[in-house]
Amino acid sequence: MRVGAKARIGLLAAVSAGALAAAAPSAGASVRFERIKGYDAPATPAKYDKVGILETGRSKARNVLIMIPGTSASAAYFEPLAKTITAKNPDWQVWSVERRENLLEDQSMADAAKAGKATPQQLFDYYLGYLTNPAITKHYTAPADADVAFAKQWGMQVAVGDIQRVVRQARKLHGKVVLGGHSLGGTITTAYATWDFHGKAGAKDLSGLVYMDGGSGPPVTADAATASLAALNAPTASPWLVFGGIPAPFAGLFNIVGAGLTKLDPNAPSLLQTWPLLPAFLKGPDRVTNEAGYGFALDSETSPPGLAAAQVHAGHVATSGDPRGWDREGELSPIQRVADAFFGTGLKSLDGTAWFHPQRLTLDAGAVGNGNANPAQGVLDVHATHGADLQGLRIYAFGAHLGGRRVLDSARALAAQSRIPSDDLTLVDRADGYSHVDPITADPDNDFVDNLTPFLAQVGGKASKHSDDDQEYVDPADAARKKAHHR
Q1: Is 183 helix (H, G, I), strand (E, B) or coil?
Q2: In sequence order, which ranges of 115-244 are alpha helices (DSSP H)?
Q3: pLDDT score, position 307
Q4: Collapsing DSSP states into helix, strand and coil, what is residue 83?
């Protein structure tokens, strides 16, 4: 596979939208991973008709919060956050969805590095170094697009069908099931809840919905959907999303290397900083550590505007040292926690980035339309039509920098069309203080978690307090935390 210009490859640094998460603070959490039979997608080999579930929490806990990752993200990036959530809510498990496209990844060298059987240099060489050094003969090779053309059909029908299997698995525990998602995962959440399953809404098996800076917006037009679908189905078109001009799988490769170096050898001089394909705007000051280079690329004050979907409030490069390290300086998200999620620390054959993101899934997301029938749904075979049939659900929406009030407005409209009372709606606006991925990575103070806890208590049957003022949940500590988090 050919690689583009330096500036385009440089966008790989932390470019996976919504793909960041945190490392685990609670040592005692139980973590389990399984793959189960998924939706039978047309023309897809049976070995890919599977959906993964990363399960965190007490196995005896009956209630389950199912989390759906966003664009180019996977289950592992929720894992550290899942441990935080289950530590605060011991009656709940968190199940993170591992989509089928991740079965196409080659995690062999990352697994070796996690096990201490490969060096940071070997990790770098296997996934990226070979691109500029022909002497490296043992390296990753991506599957040819023509060999995985069936993935052009991995749209909303496939994603919803896979999630249905996960929901059914959770229902076997005979507790409450809440479905949520980050970024694009929020749109998929709405799609599932409003999907027409033989005349019934997906919401019938749910007790609540959670939106993390993502949700469903107005639908695209039928003409736009038709044009996009035709472009995707062209013989030479790739099944995979090109993000920021970067072809798959390089966004994932860059993230697993950057995060891996940050975990394996954080204080060593940055390997990526001297790599010829890294552009100047991501190199940072001369002579930084692996950790500082990674933080520089991700922090909201130094990361370029084009990477807003991957940014966190993490700190800054230290003012001294050789090489210069990273200074958190009281910011929301520890860069080591971010790296844990991307690298999938402690998890075999899992990292936090989806190296291959189906174009069809993002295309179909444009037709969800908050669960209301529209012409684009007919073009794309999307069946999210039960937007007015969510009675009995509780909804929690958290708006950060990218989604902001639009996420809250979407949740409010979803509740209104199903006549969900204001007491069952929790809206938290942190657009001014939280970057897109801070709700996942912030620690130890995290406003998303602080408001999720009383929400889950409500769903589980316990009382919590709500305000009728703009239907916002009132947390007395919010104002103080917000001031502390602002620079």
Answers
A1: coil
A2: 120-127, 156-171, 184-194, 222-232
A3: 77
A4: helix
Contact 100, 162 (CB under 8 A): yes
Cβ-contact 436, 213 below 8 angstroms: yes
Per the listing, tokens 């002497």 go with 135
- Mark out the alpha helices in 152-308 (DSSP H runs): 156-171, 184-194, 222-232, 250-264, 280-283, 290-298
Q: What digits encode the pLDDT tens for the residues 243-253?
A: 656 789 998 99
208-212 and 394-399 beta bridge pairing: parallel
Question: How far apart (Å, rounded) are the C-alpha atoms in residues 411 and 422?
Answer: 11
**Confidence tier at 474 by pLDDT (50, 70, 90):** very low
**287 CB-contact burial (10 Å; exposed 0-12 / middle 13-18 / buried 19+):** middle
Rounded to an integer, what distance in angstroms lies between the CA atom of residue 239 and that of residue 201?
29
Q: In 3-state terms, the chain is what percent helix, strand and coil (to 5)? A: 40, 15, 45
Asked whether the beta carbons of 398 and 212 are under 8 A apart, the reply is yes
Helix (H) or strand (E) segment spanning residue 364: helix 359-365
Omega before 323 within 30 of 0, i.e. cis: yes
Q: How far apart are CA 228 and CA 133, in angstroms?
A: 37
Separation between Cα atoms, residue 85 and residue 224, nearest integer Å: 40
CA 300 to chain centre: 18
Report the length, in residues, of the chain. Answer: 487
